[in-house]
Each structure stands twice: as structure tokens, then as C-alpha cells.
Amino acid sequence: MAPELSSNWKKLQAQLKQESAAKNERKRKAIPTERQQNTIAKRRRLEGKTQIATSISISKSLSASTKSRSHEILKRKRKMGLGASTESPAESSIPPTTNLASWAEDNDISARDLADAYGSNRNGNPTSTAATTVDKINCGLVEDVEIGKYIALDCEMVGVDGPLDRSVLARISIVNFHGHLVYDSFVKPEEFVTDWRTPVSGIAPRHMVTARKFDEVQTQVAEIMKDRIIVGHAIKNDLDVLMLTHPKKDIRDTSKYPGFRKYATGRTPSLKILAAEILGLEIQSGEHSSIEDARAAMLLMRRHKSGFDVDNAQRFPSMANGGARPKGGGGGGGKKKKKGKRG
């Protein structure tokens, strides 16, 4: 007769059977059928596509955001170049400046001319010294442009004589009172160039292929300057390389105007500093442009024209008063003789 199992042993056997059955069930579930495997693979492919689509969407969103920020930065920057410069929108960030619109109206300058030359906004404030139309580089004398009484000029120079590094003319640009290009030409130096100064001057050997001879340019520029008021920055340097002279009373030099000295703690201010501080414009950030610099000088003079006129009248009083007068020359300024009493 088989021994009778105790109740505890029976409970233990029952528990072991349950655990064994549960273990087998887990193994069965752990090995998916072929159909389940296909379903899992399909689900994973769909999840992968969703992740890729999400990544692309995020990438496009970031790209659009970056472009938007870049566009906003470009709108706010007023960097100048040789090419065209479109008019900046009125809502762009522009520092407070004197309203040129009313000034232009008082001086018989059309708003269209102001916008064409300086890219001014609806308040008449300039946003660039680059014209809204493409400048014709090395074009010589521009046709169908009225020169007027005031012109601004600027020269780019290269170095000759090796260690002496003497400056000679390599390019000259002239603009009129409205900032329209009047003359632009590369100039072929008569001496061997030892330093092109390209990072600053923007002049390279390739520009000499179509450059004009110095004598030709000098003659044309002298004719343009004749009987006109010329504007420039440290203009003596420009006249020296042009080998030309001009009456001092007809020169407006932005580097010597007393009102601008405060921007350089009493010293001679650079054109770059004046453009930034007074006009809110960024120039000369890389290679210089003689067109850009001429426009900046003209705009500075225009902004403070009354001050320049007063300064010029103080320096040349005889010219301002229509010429010197001889002493006691019938001007009616002498003391009247008192009439004596009749006896």
C-alpha cells in the first residue's frame, strides 16, 4: 500500500505544476508566430517612417526659422557694396536721424532723387549709400546725369617704389549732390605697382585690363571739378594723387569740419566712424569702395550743410561778403560830421 502524501506535500506539488505551466506559457508567448513577426516588422517600418517624417518636419521648421532670422538680420544691416542696394523697409531698425525729406524740399530736391541715390525710407532718412540702381563700374563719365554745383569724390590708391610705398591713383569715383554716380574709372599707374593693397583698396591686377591712362582721367576729372564745390574726406590726399589743385574756398572736407571732432576726442575722425555715428551706416567693413565713400562724404556734408556754410564763411570772410572792399570806400560806414552852429 502506497504511503499517503501529506497535505503540505500536495500543496507543494500543485504549486510546482502551476509554476511549470506558467513558464511554458511565457515561452510560448515569447516565440511569435510568422504572422506576428510580419505584423511587428510592419509596425516598426511605420514607426521608422513616422520618425523620419518628424525629423524632416523639424529640420524644415528650423531651416525656415533660420532663414527668417537671417532675413531679419539682413534687413537691419545697412552694409554697402558696389552693386545694387534695394530700399530698406520703413519698419527696419534705423537709428534716429535728421529728417532729410523736409530739407530736400527746401533745397528743391525731389523725394524720388533722394530715394534713388540713398535708398531713403518714407521719413526721408537714408538707409544706405549704395544706389537703388546698379552702378556702372569703370564707366567713365555717366551720360544723362546732371552734375550740379556740388560733387563728392574719392580715390583708391596702390603702392609703388617698393619699401617707400608711395601712393598713386588706381581708381576715382565722383557723385553729384543727390548721390548719383557722375564718373568712375580705374586708372593704370605709370609706374610698377609693388603693393596693390587689395584688402583695403579693392584694386587688383585684373582691373588694369580696362583701366584708363592717368592723363586721360586727370583731364576729365579736372573738367568736372571746374567751378564746382568739391566734397570729400581728407581730400588733400585725393588731390595729391590726381596732381590737381582746387580753390580752398570751394572745398568741403568732412575730416576737418569742427563739428565732427567730438566723434574722435578732438582728433581727425575717420569716415567710417562718422558714417556710423552720424548716419547710422556701416561702411569700409572690407574692401573699400570709392563710390561708397564719396556718397558717405556727400551725405555727411548735406546733413550738416548749414554748419559747413558757416564754417566756410568764417574761414573766407572776404569771399562770403562778395570780395574785399577798400578802406573808406564809400560804404557809408564813416562817422558823420557834425554841423557847426551858425554864427
Automatic annotation (TrEMBL):
Record's compositionally biased regions (Low complexity): 53-67
An individual GO BP term: ribosomal large subunit assembly
Subcellular compartments: Nucleus
Sequence similarity: Belongs to the REXO4 family.
UniProt domain Exonuclease: residue ranges: 149-310
Sequence ranges of Basic residues compositional bias: 334-343
One Gene Ontology term, aspect cellular component: nucleus
MF terms in GO: 3'-5' exonuclease activity; nucleic acid binding
Name the record gives this protein: RNA exonuclease 4
Primary role: Exoribonuclease involved in ribosome biosynthesis. Involved in the processing of ITS1, the internal transcribed spacer localized between the 18S and 5.8S rRNAs.
Region span, Disordered: 1-102, 310-343
Segments of skewed composition (Polar residues): 1-18, 85-101
Keywords: Exonuclease, Hydrolase, Nuclease, Nucleus, rRNA processing
Any Pfam family the entry gives: RNase_T
Native species: Hymenoscyphus fraxineus
